[in-house]
Amino acid sequence: MNMVFSLLAIVILIFIAMGGAAIAGLKPVFFVVIPCGAFAVFVAGFIHRILSWGRLPVPFSIPTTCGQAKSLPWIKCDYLESPPCTATVIGRMALEVLLFRSLFRNTRLYLYDERPVYSSAKWLWFFALLFHWSLLVIILRHMRFFIEPVAPLINGLAAIDGFFDIAIPTIFLSDAAIVLALTFLFLRRVVVRELRYISLLTDYFAVVLILCVAITGILMRHFFPVDIEEVKTMALGWVTFAPYVPKEMSALFYIHLLFVSVLLAWFPFSKLMHMGGVFLSPTRNMANDSRMSRHFNPWNAPVKVHTYEEYEDEYRDKMKAAGLPLDKE
Amino acid sequence: MSIKIPKPEEMIRVSYKPPRTPWMDTPVDFRPGTWSYSGAAKNLIYLDLPNPRAWQPYEEDWKLPENWKDIIIEGMRERLGKYRSFKLFMDLCVRCGACADKCHFYMGSGDPKNMPVLRAELLRSVYRRYFTESGRRFGRLAGARDLTVNVLKEWFYYFYQCTECRRCSVYCPYGIDQAEITIMGRELLNLVGCNINWVIEPVANSFRTGNHLGIQPGGVKDMLEFLAEDIEERTGVKLEVPINKKGADILFITPSGDYFADPGTYTCMGYMMLFHEIGLNYTFSTYASEGGNFGLFTSHEMVKRLNNKIYAEAKRLGVKWILGGECGHMWRVIHEYMDTMNGPADFLEEPVSPITGTLFENARSTKMVHIAEFTADLIKHGKLKLDPARNDHLRITFHDSCNPARGMGLFEEPRYVIKNSVRHFYEMPEDTIREKTLCCGGGAGLGNDENIEMRMRGGMPRAMAVKHVKEKHGVNRIACMCAIDRSTLTSLMEYWVPGVTVTGVHELVANALVMKGEKDRTTDLRGEPFKEKTDDEAL
């Protein structure tokens, strides 16, 4: 049901975009108002969400330790899995954010011969990593539309991405990779029954929406070319605050741009905010040093305790009978 | 109520097929053997906790306060503002499912609400409904649902089917820690008086008498002296039992299970023999006679209320620093909470071993050292005379307890101590040890008899790993550093892997420890004879 609704939402978006393409008068709405508005919502929303987490106190030091802590000098500390200081925490976070360290541990449980067996299951890690890195490359490649002259770094990246020089225009590896990875992630959600059971509408929608962005982009590059000059003039218009409404654009471009706009505007309110949130996760970004240096809790308040005096008052006779020392006779 | 549980050969046939109905439409079934009795009113009253009353979870009417819903929602609001972890873990999950089959309760029960992700969604769905715009607007489409009595019952059932072991958080790409969510869930349940007696009675006892079991000062003394007599009988060495001794260098804190229940008592004898042998000037305390802190299974406030005694007693007795015995969640509290909650311990000294002169730099602020660190240091400096051959009748494996593993990173010290105390040591499979260790199934206050089926299910993955090394290497004893383990693993082994018994690490040390003035020892601490030394086996 959740999957059906998410697909339905995609179809509705396509119709909206096609409607926009059919009515020439709506061009400023689709080419300026929606994309710029979406971007503004993205930036403001992203910052708001990060602050909404970041301003909250972290009352206790709660890193999840995944390796030997720093203790006696002759015991080898696992600096990246149980980081004792800031530098090593940065290392741990870098592994987590750039290489998805924790996901790399993934296993899948089977009951084999009446025993649980933990078989290696790196597919999730592999395709998740493939997806995220491809997305990054694609976003960087798109920077060519926003910068004039195009920075050499971006051209270089595009050259590497199109290294195999297959077909004309060259097929970008990142394009192929992102479609492959997203397809895997989508199918996994649909096919694995446990995953289907826990999936919400938003889980399908996120994957399908990004997949649709990618597919419409690829279609425009390889099958239904658009006027790149016009696109670039429009994009430069956004960033220089001099809006430009392009001439004839295909419905496909309308759809691509609307999908991207929806993705941007929805991003801060969705689970996609894990992009920012992962940096704030206390089980990963704290040093395992809570016995070495005191962690401060800003709202640490006094609580009702049972003092030794109260204890001795209650048990004085019994303690005396047992020959235990007393503070007050 | 007599509780029948399936035989192991039935229980192992777990079905991982989710029910036909979506989880929001699948009501909770309080099946005997899978939940714990409610907290008794007298305990709640003693602790000033809300809504003390007589009730049981299987009953229709939970006798909640009239405004229970407001209390819970307000409680959530307060906690969402006080804990970044709570808010972040409500927002961050992408439901990738990596955690799903990492939970021992899911592995053993196949109940999808035991997947950490879904256990968290039980709370997240309510969070979305009352605290997010999309949840308020789109309800179920956004994964939100109203807070109802049935939802509350579901929380109770599943938050008391989580041992806060943190295994899921090792595998989560964002480090989402179900323990944090369970702790919050239990705090909220406590606001309307829904808790379990196996947690709340130990809490009340600890608050009053200083220990879980409610043993009064004389009882603690009797028990420790009784252990000293046993030691004398086994080893011929007479030792002193310092209690509440002002002027001691070191305050020793250990879970009360160590001096009151087998097989923990042998571990306690181990500590006492070790301290005697090295001439440590230490003391037990009757006021702080509990290392374990069941406050952790109640609320953060309760953690602090109970933990307070440790520093207070150290200050009163004027010791230099504190040494802690083998316990799991006790060490989570000491390592990650104590200094923050009840510190700074500026009245203590940075811990230095009086025997080796080693400064325990890793504990220089909290000033409390784990006994495995302490003993490993002694062995490394050659301060102990150990004859590991005395443990030759034992084939040992080591169970990393959840909290020292994932809430401390204490892996090598116990292994070093064990390897110097025994000659037959075998690790369980890699996916079941160290940071990937599997829970005993009875942590976080769930180790009671009425919850026996869930315990056996939750402990199944651990038990099967033991079975593996039993068949492969003839392992007959599992060592651990946790009082709850020593109690719950015992029944777990009886059920799944008969023939394997449980030991603490310092029981092994004590067996191997060659003491000054000891008689010719022929048995271990349990009175089991040492293996006859053959020529090729002699050291």
Strand ordering within the main sheet of chain A: 1-2
Structural class of chain A: mainly alpha
Oligomer: heterodimer
Major beta sheet summary of chain A: 2 strands, antiparallel
In total, how many domains does the architecture of chain A comprise? Answer: 1
> Fraction of residues of chain B in helices?
40-55%
Produce a short descriptive summary.
The complex is a heterodimer of chains A (329) and B (539). By secondary structure, chain A is mainly alpha-helical.
Structure commentary:
The complex is a heterodimer of chains A (329) and B (539). Chain A contains 14 helices and 2 strands; from the N terminus they run ααααββαααααααααα. Chain A has 329 residues and is mainly alpha-helical. Chain A has one domain: Transmembrane di-heme cytochromes, Chain C (Fumarate Reductase Cytochrome B subunit, Up-down Bundle), CATH 1.20.950. In chain A, a hairpin with a 2-residue loop joins β1 (107-112) and β2 (115-120). In chain A, α1 crosses α9, α1 (2-22) packs across α11 and α7 (173-191) runs antiparallel to α9 (201-222). Chain A starts with a helix and ends in an 8-residue tail after the last helix. Chain B has 2 domains: 8-30 and 50-194, no CATH class; 204-512, no CATH class. Chain B has 22 helices and 7 strands. A 4-stranded parallel beta sheet of chain B has the order 2-1-3-4. Chain B has a 3-stranded parallel beta sheet with strand order 5-6-7. The longest helix of chain B has 22 residues, at 452-473.
